[in-house]
Design goal:
Strand content: 5-15%
CATH class of the largest domain: Alpha Beta
Oligomer: single chain
CATH superfamily of the largest domain: HUPs
Order of helices and strands: EHEHEHEHEHHHEHHHEEE
CATH architecture of the largest domain: 3-Layer(aba) Sandwich
Structural class: alpha/beta
Number of domains: 2
Shape: globular
Length: 312
Amino acid sequence: MHTGRIISVNIEKTIHVPAGTYILAVSGGVDSMVLLDILSKLQAPSSKIALTVAHFDHGIRTDSHLDRQLVARKARKYGLPFVYSNGNLGADASEEKARNARYEFLRKVQAQAGADGIITAHHMNDVLETATHNLLRGTGRRGMASLKSVDGIIRPLLHLPKSKLKAYADANSLEWREDSTNLDTRYRRNYIRHKLLPAMQLKSPQKFEQLRAIIKRQADLNRAIDNSLQTMLHVQPDIKTLRRHDVIIMPHNVARELVGEWLRKNGLREFSRLHLERATMALKTARPHTSLDLGKNHRIEFDKKHATLKKA
């Protein structure tokens, strides 16, 4: 639990959330507690913003129930509905497992509430950490700028560094809890946060800023590429169908991007690079009246001119 000295930090006017009904993910850490405080002030009737506070207890730490108690108490203070779930993932749960469980919970709450979207407290530091994490794993263009507001998830703090969020928390005497697992550098993301990036910033500030600029340029480039892909898909026969000739005449890397966007446009998110490569090659080479399975739930059926995505 933390309180601090009063200083002048005015970031409220830089936070923008469209009118709507939202699930606000609050962990109890400083970032989400700052966002909770700011958005609670935007809940005037004229703002047309309605919030439900959602907390997911991963069950990784023995004291995580104290996080839930803090978030529940603050939600009551702000007059907001509060929901939570216990994951019971255990101390050895991976970062990926914890993240997937958390978003599964948030999506479920969103569906139950009929909410327009989910709001999270990711900030500028998270953008850099996520890009570095994905680079170390071996990423494509999307992984370089994957942390953004997209797919019904709004991240209104991405323009702010963590230092400003902490300063706001101090200025407004906010309470928060530190997650001890965030200091465990056995987790790759924590190693990046506490070891790799600070060392890089200390030894070569210029290179550090160059990395930040590269990630920003990649995000801008991704938007331009995605807009072009949307235009290409717009001229296809329908959302489920691609003209095979359009894919065949493209350079392979461009064709793969188009097929990936086509799959995402149809609600497929969890496909591997191997699946994407196989699908792209099949669109170019598969014989008519054949099909390609994409996992358990979808398949692509081919005729001479078209490829059609169908439920398996």
